[in-house]
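Now for our target.
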Amino acid sequence: MTTVKLEPSAEWKGYEKALLRFFFIYFIIQTIPLDWKYYKGLFSINWLDVRYGDIFFISRYFPGITSATGSFTDWIIIAVIAATGAFIWSKRKKSDTDYSILYYWLRTLLRYRLAIGIIGYGFIKFFPLQAPFPSISNLNTSYGDFTDWKIFSLSLGIVPGYETFLGGIELLAGILLFFRRTASVGALIVLVFTGNVFISNLAYEGGEYVYSFYLISLALFIFAYDAQRIYNLVALGKPTVPNLFKPTFPGWQENTRIVLKSALIFFFVFVYGFKTYKGYKNDPYQFPKAKGLKGASGIYNVSEFRINNKTFPYSVTDRTRWKDVVFEKWATISIRSNRPVILDSTNYEQVSRKDSDRNYELAGSGGRHYYSYTADTVNHTLILRNKNRNYADEKLVLHYSRPDSATILLSGINESRDSVFVLLTKIDKKYPIKLGRRGRLKL
């Protein structure tokens, strides 16, 4: 490999070399996967049938030493390691390191890492998967029973067009980062966009504030390359010469570089885009895939409720009696009552393949207990299991009958091993939010 400097370049000052040595070690640890669990996940992928969740998993890596979801404490540990390594590096008697080349390769590594990371989130927004339209249960949950994060997510979910726009911005930034000449523009977009994501996560107690700031840190380093030149040109109006330093490669190395770059872009843009679109149409990851009881979806009033043959009349304060029941289109039943709910506060992004791991509908939501169920349509039996990890052992076995399309009778054993009988009457409820601005709701 040879190097061509297309403009005069000042010698590196001592403090600049020290900073670059530190950041080189620091960002190598931050971007190169060193966690065996990550490689375990890679080897568990069926590469003959890659899913969009697999590619999202690949794109989202960042080191977790003290926490699986990331922690700023980890950054301090990594910074200490980097500072130690940089100090040892500086004590070498002879140094033939070309710091311009070192800077170029570090920036190239971070460009691609940031591009992959931002595209990972871009596609699940562009095809509105990250914040889906609220479920029937969510639409029938009191505002005060949601966490701040869940309110934010549901608010985004009701405007899929805006979510698509946000995803498009992320995709644009990611694609610009793949190319050296447009990388600073892409990094600037990330700083503005992901900076807003970071603030939103802090304001709404989201679980992505560490990862979003991680992406910001990469963008800051990339943008710093042209920051002074952009300031001179835009703010001071001075003539500014771009830094055109770049290595050149012998023939086969150049061909290899082009092939690898093309393969990377093809995989993370075209393959991932196609797989995400396919998932959007056939398997949105936030809600379970298993179909619910045919023709049962909707909200039902609890017209009659008995425990051990004792009738419980409607009560605003009773913790035992159910108030209403929702059957989703998928295999989830939610029950509203005054029985307290220990919240599942999981609010960081994970694309789960198994229905049992898909907890978006109940995460950050109180007032209801959510149950996944399996239906034996021959014996008319429902087996319900509480989806909340805080109630993992809770199970109901209910026999069901449907005298007509608006009535469901449930009887069997509840979570306390008591006999239960419930008469459900479907409510013909209209949702103005589904009708849109031009929809008409007749009262």
